[in-house]
Amino acid sequence: MEEQGLDQEIAQLQNAYTAITEFLVQYSFSILGAVIIFLIGLWIAAKVANLVTRIFEKHQIDITLSNFTSNFVRILIIVMVGIIALGKLGISVTPMVAAIGAASLGAGLALQGMLANYAAGITIIVTRPFIVGNTIEVKGVGGLVKDIHLGMTVLTNEEGEEINIPNKHIVGEILHNSFANKLVETKFNISYQANTEEVVAMLAKVLADSPRVFEGDKAQVGINDFNSIGIEIGIEIGIRYWVPTDSYFQDKYQTNAELFKALKQANIEIPCPVKQIHIQEH
């Protein structure tokens, strides 16, 4: 009985060896050819991807779009070469393609929001409504553009906070782009007895000479309103100037301090709010 069992195991091993040998003899060249085709395909994919990257760099196209396109081209070539290699082995790829198509449809429905962000990201990169370093505001959220990804845009502010905005919430919305700077608007009252022309000229000079103000000679200073009713009485002076977004509050506070110092040195009266109280006696 033991000899019969041993003989059966030997026979099974011989059958397996024979099957493997026949398979290798029959398909060795096909396997070798498929491996060679796939390796050549990997080499071609890398070369073509690098070529696409160099072309994009030559035409100074955004690096995010360049990386996305080169990676997409490389993956596309690898998939095509993989299909050819499988065909070389005699494996039909038609059922596989159908299965991939069905899976892609289901994944597309499940990832609809993500795909919308990617599509919007490509639109942003191609149309370039803003670039890294610009100051944008969209749907009440603003900041300095730190990075642009396919799925989202990253903003930052003076406090170092990072604000991630999905790209689908940017494309199609009203977008404000003030580039690398942000507007400061200030207003205050001066006495009706003050010489407004001298005050406007003095404040304009302070802004023009300030190293913190962006293009200070283009800052705007003028009479904004006339307040003669209520608790604020006087001529309202309006000031508009630009400072770098990444130091907005610091530059704003220091510039306003310089403006206030100039007003005090020139003895310009800033009226205090007046509130009248009437007492009726019975």
Automatic annotation (TrEMBL):
Annotated compartments: Cell inner membrane; Cell membrane
Membrane topology note: Multi-pass membrane protein
Keyword Cell membrane: yes
Gene3D superfamilies cross-referenced by the UniProt entry: 1.10.287.1260, 2.30.30.60, 3.30.70.100
Keyword tags: Cell inner membrane, Cell membrane, Ion channel, Ion transport, Membrane, Transmembrane, Transmembrane helix, Transport
Domain of life: Bacteria
Record keyword Transport present: yes
Chief localization: membrane
Domain spans labelled Mechanosensitive ion channel MscS: 115-177
Transmembrane regions listed in the UniProt entry: 27-52, 72-91, 97-120
Coiled-coil annotated residue ranges, if any: none
Family recorded in the similarity comment: Belongs to the MscS (TC 1.A.23) family.
Function, as annotated: Mechanosensitive channel that participates in the regulation of osmotic pressure changes within the cell, opening in response to stretch forces in the membrane lipid bilayer, without the need for other proteins. Contributes to normal resistance to hypoosmotic shock. Forms an ion channel of 1.0 nanosiemens conductance with a slight preference for anions.
Binding partners and assembly: Homoheptamer.
Protein name: Small-conductance mechanosensitive channel
UniProt lineage: Bacteria, Pseudomonadati, Pseudomonadota, Gammaproteobacteria, Alteromonadales
